[in-house]
């Protein structure tokens, strides 16, 4: 069973910042889609040729954990 990705703690991505606001929005969308496995997201992205960006499971995980500021075309794909 895939691990659940959780919203980063405030000591990782501080509250009240634009980056935190962005992550909160990403998590709203992630949860609204049923919190799919990262591999499932990656496969969906690969199957949709009209998307400008791409993302591996590791990239998706790092973005949702707040470790990297993403590029817009990657966010759009996710």
Sum this structure up briefly.
The protein is mostly helical and 78 residues long. The chain is built from 4 helices and no strands. Helix 2 (38-47) packs across helix 3.
How is the topology of this model organized?
Elements: H1 18-32, H2 38-47, H3 57-64, H4 72-77
Helix pairs in contact: 2-3
Number of strands: 0
Average pLDDT works out at: 90
**Biggest sheet layout:** none
Q: Residue ranges: pLDDT <50 for 5 or more in a row?
A: none
Count helical runs. Answer: 4
What fraction strand? Answer: under 5%
Rounded radius of gyration (Å): 12 Å
Shape: globular
First and last CA, distance: 21 Å
H-E string: HHHH
Class by alpha and beta content: mainly alpha
Quaternary status of these chains? single chain
Please estimate the helix content. Answer: 40-55%
Describe this structure in words.
The mean pLDDT is 90. The chain starts with 17 loop residues before the first helix and ends with a helix. Helices cover 50% and strands 0% of the residues. It has a domain at 37-78. With 78 residues, the chain is an all-alpha fold. The protein is built from four helices and no strands.
Q: What characteristics describe this protein?
A:
single chain, 78 residues, mainly alpha, globular
